[in-house]
Write a structure and sequence with these properties.
- The structure holds two protein chains of two kinds.
- By secondary structure, chain A is an alpha+beta fold.
- Chain A has three helices and two strands, in the order ααββα.
- In chain A, strands 1-2 form a two-stranded parallel sheet.
- Chain B is built from eight helices and eight strands; from the N terminus they run ααββββαβαααβαβαβ.
- The N and C termini of chain B lie far apart (56 Å).
- In chain B, the strands form two sheets. In chain B, strands 4-3-2-1-5-8 form a six-stranded antiparallel beta sheet, sandwiched between helices. In chain B, strands 6-7 form a two-stranded antiparallel ribbon.
- In chain B, helix 4 packs across helix 5.
- Chain B is of the alpha+beta class.
- Chain B folds into two domains: 33 residues; 230 residues, Alpha-Beta Complex (endopeptidase fold (from Nostoc punctiforme)), CATH 3.90.1720.
- Classes of the chains: A alpha+beta, B alpha+beta.
- At the A-B interface, helix 1, helix 2, strand 1 and strand 2 of A face helix 1, helix 2, strand 2, strand 3 and strand 4 of B.
């Protein structure tokens, strides 16, 4: 009986302890990702929200950071110097496209 | 109490144990069913982008709360941290739009002990949020410029350690979580080096990690039953990098331009 008591105490300790170790979550939405839900719902919501997929995002090149001869795709956007002045943000809401796995194996609900 | 009673208690405890684990796994699946409407997610994401843009932030550190507040240990205010980079985003139709791309370390889908680097966007970042609350930390211009150079060159990826632990020790390179990755990238930019040994030596000298205020027993039990948690990289007190400690690190070194917590406002 004593051993049983220990077992029950141990199990109860586990119940209390295990979920309480959360300090970080590095989880992304998975195969039915929320962003996909956003896209799907957006279509259903008749334009109340519109989410578009991106093809590529290139960091704006800061003047002086790279040479004039650079062939990077972001070169056309040269001219943004560093500073605290406000930056423009587009009205469109952009979401990541499908993961490689989803692109190859298909994605439900898209 | 007779043996029968103890057996019932044991079964009840087991049920609770597995129920608790299911609930934990369930919260992950819940990420696929966001707590918020698409309109709320889109509005909040834009709100966060505009706050960062209003500060002229080319690069900033962004954090979200992805677990219930009641699950968090003392001193932890955010659970996922990444780097936002002001970008020229090309859309499927060929047009471009200015906005922020988010550079993340995410736990690998299907393997909680491994991670991968993923670029997404604010609406993706907040899709799994528990609360629409964001931490925004903008380093000063010099640090932003160095971060931009590091990310643009692709060298930041050399700092990725795919061995994942949710409470990774930022003072060594055994494991890494999302926030430690951000700290490593930040330090690589500050010191203009991707020499991991040197960067960790500097981290030990100058960075104050967050102590995890939890009993050793609880932590050990958590490590036994959670794939994403190990204590192998901790030798005495368990400490980890957080969004708040990174912000304090920048502030203490006069490298902070702006810090703000944004909450969703309709």
């Amino acid at each position: 009986m004593y051993i049983n008591r220990i077992n029950v105490s141990f199990l109860l300790a586990l119940v209390i302890a295990a979920p309480g170790c959360a300090a970080s979550d590095s989880m992304r939405d998975m195969s039915k990702g929320t962003s996909q839900m956003v896209k799907g719902s957006a279509r259903a919501a008749v334009g109340s929200v519109k989410v578009v997929a991106s093809v590529v995002a290139i960091p704006f090149v800061v003047v002086g950071a790279y040479g004039q001869g650079s062939k990077r795709a972001g070169d056309s956007m040269l001219g943004w110097g560093m500073g605290k002045q406000p930056l423009p943000i587009g009205d469109k809401t952009v979401s990541a496209g499908l993961s490689p796995k989803q692109a190859v194996n298909g994605q439900e609900g898209i | 109490m007779n043996r029968w009673c103890w057996t019932v208690c044991a079964l009840l405890a087991l049920t609770m144990l597995f129920g608790a684990n299911d609930a934990n796994a369930g919260s992950r699946n819940d990420k696929n069913k966001s707590k918020f409407t698409p309109e709320q997610l889109v509005d909040f994401s834009k709100q966060v982008e505009r706050v960062a843009a209003s500060q002229g932030a080319r690069v900033f550190i962004l954090s979200r709360l992805g677990r219930p507040q009641s699950d968090l240990t003392e001193g932890i205010q955010f659970t996922h941290t990444a780097i936002g980079v002001y970008s020229n985003i090309t859309l499927e139709d060929g047009t471009t739009t200015p906005g922020y791309a988010i550079y993340n370390l995410y736990m690998k889908v299907g393997d909680d002990t491994k991670s991968e680097l993923v670029m997404d966007f604010p609406v993706d970042f907040f899709a799994g949020a528990e609360l629409l609350k964001a931490g925004i930390t903008v380093p000063d211009e010099k640090v932003q410029k160095r971060l931009l150079e590091l990310i643009q060159s692709g060298r930041y990826a050399k700092l990725h350690n795919p061995k994942y632990s949710t409470l990774s020790n930022p003072y060594n390179s055994q494991f890494q979580n999302c926030t430690e990755f951000v700290l490593d990238v930040l330090n690589a930019a500050i010191y203009q080096s991707v020499n991991k040994a040197q960067l960790k030596a500097n981290t030990r000298a100058y960075f104050n990690a967050q102590p995890i205020k939890m009993s050793g027993l609880k932590l050990s039990l958590g490590a036994m039953f959670m794939d994403e948690l190990t204590l192998e990289d901790h030798h005495s007190k368990v400490k980890t990098a957080t969004f708040t400690t990174i912000t304090n690190y920048l502030r203490d070194n006069d490298l902070l331009q702006h810090h703000e917590v944004v909450r969703w406002a309709e």
